[in-house]
Amino acid sequence: MIKYINDERYLTFALAKGRLAEKTMELFKDIGITCSEMEDKGTRKLIFVNEEQHLRFFLAKASDVPTYVEYGAADLGVVGRDTILEEQRNIHEVMDLGFGKCKMCVCGPLEAKELLSKNEIIRVASKYPNIAKDYFANTKQQTVEIIKLNGSVELAPIVGLADVIVDIVETGTTLRENGLDVLETVTDLSARMVVNQVSLRMEHERIRKLINDLNEKRLEGKF
Ligand code: PRP
């Protein structure tokens, strides 16, 4: 169990709101980190405090979590690896939390597969333009035109906006129901814990203890 003494500063966590935040708090409960205020599902509050343990949690839009952590507004964050790669913030990734597993893939109609093996300039739609740009430039050395979209990206190849998409595939249902396939895998994704560079030094002991406690649970097969 983690014990905190009274003159410690508050350690602040930025959590990607929604399922990731819920899973994170479930995991934290196993190592004695709790926040009863957060258990009220109907609340619209964004910041929650555990006075006894000197911990503060806030819920942010996933894509903003790396920003809060880079600037030190949060000491730690929990967010998907997709967001970490896309946002390219100066933060330290310290742990794979093992949940929220999915893949970043190049998807499209099967006919589009041949476009990926030729040196052809194709159109790629994605909510993740940086990940898409990096994959095509550095892994495939293929020149592409990236079109940034904000959601329902699967529409793009269907209505002729793009040849392929770079998007998250979890169960594959969205692709299947829209007649699309995974053409290539870009990378594996899951929830990660990230830390502010200064906090990592200043709060080294508390952060190390947190990681050690989580690692013990991992060894016990909790995640
Ligand atoms: C994500 C992703 C895919 C879908 C994949 O979309 O962009 O569309 O989930 O999941 P599946 O493989 O289990 O079907 P999200 O629900 O985040 O909404 P979005 O369309 O706004 O991106």
Could you walk me through the main structural features you see in this protein, from its secondary elements to its overall organization?
The protein contains 8 helices and 11 strands. 30% of the residues lie in helices and 28% in strands. The strands form 2 sheets. A 6-stranded mixed beta sheet has the order 2-3-1-4-11-5. The protein has a 5-stranded mixed beta sheet with strand order 8-7-9-6-10. With 223 residues, it is α/β, with parallel strands linked by helices. The mean pLDDT is 94. The structure holds 1-O-pyrophosphono-5-O-phosphono-alpha-D-ribofuranose. 1-O-pyrophosphono-5-O-phosphono-alpha-D-ribofuranose binds at residues 127, 151-154, 167-174.
Total of DSSP H or I helical runs spanning 4+ residues: 8
Give helix and strand order, one letter per element, not per position.
Answer: EHEEHEHEEEHEHEHEEHH
As laid out across the biggest beta sheet, the strand order is 2-3-1-4-11-5
Alpha-beta classification: alpha/beta
Question: Over all CA atoms, what is the radius of gyration?
Answer: 20 Å
Low-confidence region ranges:
none
Using brief descriptors, characterize the structure shown:
about 220 residues; alpha/beta; binds 1-O-pyrophosphono-5-O-phosphono-alpha-D-ribofuranose; 8 helices; five-stranded mixed sheet
Give me the secondary-structure topology.
Elements: E1 11-16, H1 19-30, E2 47-50, E3 55-60, H2 65-70, E4 76-80, H3 81-87, E5 92-96, E6 102-108, E7 122-126, H4 129-139, E8 144-148, H5 155-159, E9 164-169, H6 173-177, E10 181-189, E11 191-195, H7 197-202, H8 204-219
